[in-house]
Amino acid sequence: MRWLSALAGTLGRLVAFLAVSALCGVLAVGFLAPTVAATWGAANGSVQFFDSLPSELKVTPPARVTKVVAADGSPIASVYSENRTPVPLAAMSPNITNAIIAIEDYRFYEHGGVDTTGILRAVMANFRGDRQGASTLTQQYVANVLKENAIAQGEDPAVLLNGQKSIGDKLREMKLAIALEKQYSKDQILEGYLNIVFFNRDAYGIQAASQHFFSVDAKDLTLPQAALLAGLVNGPSVYDPVTNPDNSLQRRNLVLDAMLKRGYITQAQYTEAVATPIQLAVKPTMQGCAYAAQAQYFCDYVLHQILNDPAYGATADDRLQLLTRGGLTITTTLDPRLQAPAQAQVDATAGANPDKWGTALTTIQPGTGKVLSMAQNTRMLQGQGLDFVTSYNFNVDRLDANGNDLGGAGGFQPGSSMKPVTLTAWLSEGKPTDQVVNAAQRRYPLNYPWKTTCTKVTGAFDDTTVGLGTAPDLQNNEPQWYRPMPVREGIYQSINTATFATAAGLNDFCDIQRAADALGLHDGEGKDQKLDMSTLGNLLGGPNVSPVTMASMFATFSANGTYCVPISITEVKDANGQRIGGQEQKCRAGAISPDVAKAVTNVLQDVLTKGSGYNIKDDAGKTIQLGVPAAAKTGTNQYNSQTWVMGFTKGVATASFFGEALRNPEDRVGRNVVVNGRFWPSVDGAYIAGPQWAFYMQKVVGLFDHGGFDPPPPVLITGKR
């Protein structure tokens, strides 16, 4: 029976030889001129199949890392679907090029894309029980390019990486490899291969692999390091040096054997290299805003500006593909000189509070709309600093953040910091700040004769008709303010009844809506939802508005009436360094009259010197002064659970928020609470948001224009020319 077994083995090898010979014949026929190929009658069907295969390969750049950087070029974060940083062949160590050729395709510089000798050798070895591949580096490059192209078209990468190839697939790769060799040089193919090949789920291409496993650039790879990486491509999980160090060591030494055999290294180099233990310096790959070097939530805001902008792709998926695969460089408006103290301040304000109140700071540059800083006292990941974790961005509209219907992102109730809108309408009608209004009036019944040329005014305040749906009589925080007073005093002392008396004295209530629109105010849900100022409760800050929107409003006063749409991106470049986008400054000079803006600013300066802002004190009870001309407005909602200070100098405007950020404002009243170890009978805008604003502004105002404000015309102050 032994002779029968031997005969079977011999026949098997003969069949294998004939099969491979037939394959090589098909390839040979396909490579020859058509007139010669036509004489190969026996292989005619195979030749026709081979001829029908495509011969052109679209070599598109593989997925690359997108970088988000601050205005000064310092890193913020990186985003990618594949961690890859292409480098030229000259920036790769000869150790890696030699190692990959020695182990994967030692005849690389001799064949024309397909190595028929290698195919025959591999098949015979496989029939002997020795597993051996036959794909050349060119074929492997083709296979990787096809995968990348398919993934870019939306196909599942897991399926592509793990799928089985048919004979037709292999023949297709062979034909494409042959054509590729006619189009590109060997060095170009080798460079492309080493930049595209998969080493690890966190490392695509040799530069990323070098950094990931050894924390070095590809040009600095040592012989043992290069041999390990060259061995890794054959089985990234099997030979992973982190999870399978023994397998990795054996594979590395196999590569070194091949390098010695092919003459790439000397015996002495080989001996030293195989004696070298695996010495990893794994650099964890951290992508996305959760791992941002600075400004996590600003980073998230920037990415949403890209994802929501059709300029970067017709569909949401197109934009996501560009962002995660395009190798973009997104230069932002962030100023690290402001960001660092902003983050430190919000952390200090309430970071240690066990009740986890939210704090936020957003700074905008007047006259440009540039968002210079954006900070809040939470982190996106557990274990990153303070143990207050949320993906919500407190500073922006829900459209621009990872928010949902549960609340958190999408703005907060600004309270009395909305009162300057009514003041703007008053001044726009030419009325002076020192004119007296009747702040003693507390009732505005259902039939109150508001003067309006547009939408009907809704809402009413009247104790006697609460059963009909009216709110109770208007309330002020303290009883001594129910009296006639100048409009100016009503603002700097933040008197609710004075604001309503001002609105009642307007020639057209609709001027409040016009002022709000001109100042860029909109609901925190998104930019297309304007605030409805015909609802009386909104005069006192009832709707949710984001800090970035409020900062823009106050920046308009600082810029003498020039409103600028907030921008966070100055330039977007593609992987080739070509500018493909960016947010242009969209400023409207005269959005409100310059004289009106100057008069509003003049009143808001009084807030800090003798009004509600005079209560912005340090722990010793001393009023915090910036030492430069500044203006501000405090704001507190009716539950004392969402509080603000909006303040500005000539050069910067900052919205400061403290309060309930993740739940409905009525779910937790800001009274009789402890914050950072201090008991507060009630929380007011000046008490916590105020010092947060003042301490931060002290650190940054000197970096920008901090001169005096332009004086308003006397007619808007006293009514006299």
UniProtKB/TrEMBL annotation:
Catalytic activity: Preferential cleavage: (Ac)2-L-Lys-D-Ala-|-D-Ala. Also transpeptidation of peptidyl-alanyl moieties that are N-acyl substituents of D-alanine; [GlcNAc-(1->4)-Mur2Ac(oyl-L-Ala-gamma-D-Glu-L-Lys-D-Ala-D-Ala)](n)-di-trans,octa-cis-undecaprenyl diphosphate + beta-D-GlcNAc-(1->4)-Mur2Ac(oyl-L-Ala-gamma-D-Glu-L-Lys-D-Ala-D-Ala)-di-trans,octa-cis-undecaprenyl diphosphate = [GlcNAc-(1->4)-Mur2Ac(oyl-L-Ala-gamma-D-Glu-L-Lys-D-Ala-D-Ala)](n+1)-di-trans,octa-cis-undecaprenyl diphosphate + di-trans,octa-cis-undecaprenyl diphosphate + H(+)
InterPro entries registered for this protein in UniProt: Beta-lactam/transpept-like (IPR012338), Glyco_trans_51 (IPR001264), Glycosyltr_51/Transpeptidase (IPR050396), Lysozyme-like_dom_sf (IPR023346), PBP_transglycosylase (IPR036950), PCN-bd_Tpept (IPR001460)
Keywords assigned: Carboxypeptidase, Glycosyltransferase, Hydrolase, Multifunctional enzyme, Protease, Transferase
Organism: Sinomonas flava
Limits of the Glycosyl transferase family domain: 73-259
Entry protein name: Transglycosylase domain-containing protein
Statement: the UniProt record of this protein carries the keyword Nuclease: no
Domain of life assignment: Bacteria
All copies of domain Penicillin-binding protein transpeptidase, residue ranges: 529-650
